[in-house]
Design a protein that fits this description.
The complex is a heterodimer of chains A (about 500) and B (about 350).
Chain A: E1 9-18, E2 21-31, E3 36-40, H1 47-54, E4 62-67, E5 70-71, H2 77-82, E6 85-88, H3 100-104, E7 111-112, E8 115-116, H4 118-131, H5 149-162, E9 167-171, H6 179-194, E10 198-202, H7 206-212, E11 215-220, E12 223-229, H8 235-243, E13 261-270, E14 273-281, E15 285-289, H9 296-303, E16 311-316, E17 319-321, H10 326-331, E18 334-337, H11 341-345, H12 352-357, H13 361-364, E19 365-366, E20 369-370, H14 372-386, H15 402-411, E21 420-424, H16 432-447, E22 451-455, H17 459-465, E23 468-473, E24 476-482, H18 488-495
Parallel strand pairs in A: 3-10, 3-11, 6-9, 9-10, 15-22, 15-23, 18-21, 21-22
Antiparallel strand pairs in A: 1-2, 1-4, 4-5, 7-8, 11-12, 13-14, 13-16, 16-17, 19-20, 23-24
Helix pairs in contact in A: 5-6, 8-18
Chain B: H1 3-23, H2 38-63, H3 71-89, H4 96-101, H5 107-146, H6 151-168, E1 175-176, H7 182-189, E2 191-192, E3 196-197, H8 198-216, H9 218-228, H10 230-235, H11 240-266, E4 268-269, H12 277-287, H13 299-318, H14 323-345
Antiparallel strand pairs in B: 1-4, 2-3
Classes of the chains: A alpha/beta (about 500), B mainly alpha (about 350).
Chain lengths: ~500, ~350
């Protein structure tokens, strides 16, 4: 048994900079054997950077690391593996066509001179799974593709532990799990803790963190705010630590010009939406606030006709619309600007002009005859109207900055402005200056009378830009509150599942 | 074993086809009392040998998420290379030239010398033919592993190159195998103890080799991993490039072996032979349950796939069904097999 006084892993004063940005600023952290140590913080607080330092992906500029009391140098992924540090990422790296045992021993199959010792592989896998008490995956002959995501995670954990992992890092393991599935994972982690594995657990969901962890460390802006025993804090306190006091960022909230109701969503049910109702007026921004995986995007997909609506109704201008495809939504005047620019939004191999003119083919192609001048006019209006910075409209869209690509995504719909604009993560991956521009742009569109639904993982952005905020969790809308004067702590507390606070 | 679950439907299909062609379908297909005759069944095996051997290699490439369209052309190139060199290097042991040149020698020695030259020529020609195939496989594999070109395009290119090179020999006209090479001609046409064709024996031996390689070695396990999740395979340290090259080399080598059987069956090398063989091989693999997305497939499945297509062709042919309808029938079988497979996996 390791001496419990000496931590399994300890970090002191770890600092990591990227260019001018300090991602980690003198972070202290330690992990004991047989402990679940949770790491919490807002997006961009430095959690991922810290993990990558542990995993040997980033090398810190300053700071020291000890493994079992001895100084450790983690300069590569191989180093991290040698110290028995295993990171389990959100995207699992399993082969779905292979069995549990085959995945556990992937690349390290027992063999004699190249002959696969299949019997021994299954035997050892069974023994390993039994000794780890991961009974859920006791059928090591099951195909991994047939397992639930939670069980797949256990396979990945078993693989990590089969190569003598002492430190297991789980990055947002429950983000893709249902509540029942999460329970499976928690009970497995409980059993591993008893066996002396040190577990670093990263999650947004404070209630599960408080339930599961022995200690909790809060990161904010790359600094370690504090470490507490899980029994000594409550959710409100954690939220306060996470958000900090100084959250004054300047967002120019667009002046509301509420007109008639533009979009009405009544008790909408879909694959991952369980009865959502809301409405947006012309000249108003409704924010959908929720954690990653809370079902905001899925709700937007329903309203845009991508996923099948199981029940409920969508009305535009008071008239019900049948949404069987995005084409139906567009005809009804609903536009969705998706979150993933590269994969869902833009044709990356084509030019800026191509992307801008794409939605309006019927305006510039008459029969079989493209009208270059009309196309040119559409493209120019979008470029000048939205201040897209480029040398030549025919340059590749990939050569633009993220912010300008985002402007293209919005601008291309404004040739004939829609009634309702749904923006999914419009500021993801763009720099501060471009964000400001997006906000100004948003304000202008609202002034023009557009109804806007804004989805963002940045809570303060939602709370400060929207006029009303819908709190989304587990595919349901918990509440819709006026944004003016809404306390971030309260919102975060409710989204993470803290006590339901006074609704405004 | 789970194997039964995957191969069961294929075995069932084989049995059904055998029964249907024996008994016929009133009004559609006339019964064939001789369909189950041993000789008829062996004939089917002989007809599928070339396709099955190519399909075993094709299965490996599809399994890792690739494809090899060049096999038909590589088959032709390996065949023409071998037969061309055979013609160049062979001197008939029965030729009077031997006695003319070595008149004073002991006739037994002359005879042995002549036999030796014949066999050396055969070995050299076969080695050269197979080496040509391996070179193409290595090139395909290197390109697939080290460049970002898709396997489909790479092998589309090498298919045309190999076909063109095959036509360089003898102005694109067929080249006869020298009469003295009875043993080589037996490869495609002879039978062990007068019963089992040598080509079928070669096919079965290659099947055993490929099945063991795929299902009993670490290498085979790694191919499944690469086809299932290439990134996961990379992260666990599986040597992707080495394995990929090995797969394409094996595939081309098997096409080369099929090329030897092919020229032997035809008594000559035909530069235009093997056109479309790549598609027949793909058909056998997918009917046998190999998934085009990679990671799923079995050698026994591919063998049964080739058998099903073989029975179908033979049966329809003997029942006097017009060849045009044979095409239609195999097309329907391919679609039905893959449709059922996709539905079962969902």
């Amino acid at each position: 048994m390791p001496d419990s006084a000496v931590p399994l892993l300890a970090l002191a004063g770890v600092t990591k900079r990227f260019g001018g940005v300090t991602a980690l600023d003198g972070v202290d952290f330690d992990l004991r054997a047989g402990e679940i140590h949770a790491l919490v913080g807002e997006n961009g607080a430095g959690k991922s950077t810290l993990i990558k330092v542990l995993g040997g992906i980033h090398i810190p500029e300053a700071g020291r690391i000890w493994f079992q009391g001895r100084p450790a140098a983690i300069r590569s992924v191989a180093d991290a593996n040698r110290y028995g540090i295993r990171i389990i990422h959100q995207e699992l790296s399993l082969a779905p066509n292979l069995t549990v045992a085959e995945n556990i021993y992937l690349g390290r199959e027992p063999h004699r001179a190249g002959w696969l010792l299949r019997g021994r592989m299954y035997h050892e896998a069974r023994r390993l799974v039994r000794s780890l008490r991961l009974d859920e995956i006791a059928d090591v002959e099951a195909r991994v593709g047939d397992l639930s995501v939670a069980h797949q995670q256990l396979v990945e954990i078993a693989r990590a532990l089969s190569c003598q992992a002492r430190v297991l890092v789980l990055d947002e393991p429950t983000s893709a799990l249902s509540e029942a599935e999460a329970e499976v994972l928690f009970s497995a982690l409980d059993r591993l803790r008893v066996q002396g594995v040190g577990i670093i657990y990263i999650s947004h969901r404070l209630e599960e963190v408080l339930r599961l962890a022995d200690r909790i460390t809060v990161l904010r802006d790359g600094r370690c705010i504090g470490t507490q025993a899980a029994g000594a804090v409550d959710q409100r306190e954690l939220v306060r630590w996470m958000v900090g006091r100084d959250i004054v960022e300047h967002y120019p909230r667009p002046k509301a010009r509420p007109g008639d109701v533009a979009l009405e969503v009544c008790d909408l049910w879909g694959p991952k939406t369980f009865g959502a109702s809301f409405s947006v007026r012309y000249g108003e921004v409704l924010g959908l606030a929720g954690l990653v995986g809370s079902g905001r995007t899925e709700l937007a997909r329903l309203v845009f006709g991508i996923d099948p609506i199981r029940r409920g109704q969508v009305r535009v201008d008071g008239r019900p619309v049948a949404l069987r495809s995005p084409a139906d939504a567009l005809r009804a005047g609903i536009v969705l600007v998706p979150e993933d620019r590269k994969r869902q939004g833009l044709v990356m191999v084509q030019s800026v002009a191509f992307n801008l003119a794409l939605p309006w083919l019927e305006l510039w192609i008459r029969g079989c005859w493209p009208d270059g001048e009309r196309r040119q006019a559409i493209v120019q209006r979008a470029i000048s109207g939205f201040g897209i910075r480029l040398a030549d409209p025919e340059q590749g869209i990939g050569t633009l900055s993220g912010g300008n690509q985002q402007k293209v995504m919005v601008a291309r719909w404004m040739e004939k402005p829609p009634r309702v604009l749904i923006l999914d993560e419009p500021t993801r991956g763009i720099d501060v200056g471009a964000r400001e521009e997006m906000f100004v742009l948003l304000g202008r569109l609202v002034q023009q009378g557009l109804a806007v639904v804004l989805i963002s993982s940045d809570l303060s952005e939602v709370v400060h830009l929207a006029h009303r905020v819908a709190l989304v969790r587990d595919g349901r809308i918990l509440d819709i509150l006026p944004a003016e004067g809404l306390a971030l702590e309260n919102v975060l507390a409710r989204l993470t599942g803290a006590v339901s606070c006074e609704s405004g | 074993m789970r194997v039964g679950k995957q191969l069961g439907p294929l075995l069932l299909a084989v049995v059904i086809l055998e029964v249907v062609f024996r008994l016929g379908i009133p009004g559609l297909l006339r019964p064939n009392p001789d369909f189950w005759a041993l000789d008829n069944q062996i004939g089917i095996a002989q007809q599928i040998a070339v396709n099955a051997i190519i399909a075993f290699g094709m299965t490996l490439t599809i399994l890792i998420g690739g494809i090899d369209l060049s096999v038909g052309a590589v088959l032709a190139l390996a065949g023409t290379t071998t037969v061309y060199l055979l013609g160049l290097w062979s001197v008939d042991p029965a030729s009077p030239a031997w006695n003319a040149a070595l008149g004073g020698w002991n006739p037994a020695v002359v005879r042995a010398l002549a036999e030796g030259v014949k066999w050396a020529a055969l070995a050299g020609a076969i080695a050269a033919g197979l080496a040509t195939a391996v070179a193409f496989g290595a090139f395909n594999g290197l390109c697939a592993a080290k460049t970002r070109m898709p396997a489909f395009i790479i092998t589309l290119g090498t298919m045309r190159i190999a076909r063109g090179l095959a036509h360089r020999f003898n102005e694109g006209r067929p080249i006869r195998i020298p009469d003295c090479h009875d043993e080589f001609l037996a490869l495609g046409n002879g039978r062990l103890w007068g019963v089992v064709p040598y080509s079928v024996l070669v096919m079965l031996a290659i099947f055993a080799f490929a099945a063991i390689l795929l299902h009993r070695t670490r290498f085979g396990q790694h191919l499944y991993a690469m086809g299932g999740n290439r990134e996961a395979a990379r992260l666990t340290g599986i040597p992707l490039a080495r394995n990929e090259i090995a797969v394409y080399v094996l595939c081309a080598l098997l096409a080369g072996v099929a090329g030897l059987i092919n020229v032997s069956q035809l008594y000559s090398a035909e530069p235009a032979s093997g056109e479309g063989f790549e598609l027949d091989a793909i058909a056998a693999a997918v009917v046998g349950g190999t998934s085009f997305t990679g990671g799923v497939g079995k050698m026994a499945g591919t063998l049964l796939g080739a058998v099903i297509i073989g029975i179908l062709n033979k049966g329809l042919n003997q029942a006097g069904v017009h060849y045009s309808l044979q095409y239609v029938a195999t097309g329907v079988v391919i679609l039905a097999a893959v449709y059922l497979d996709v539905r079962r996996r969902r």
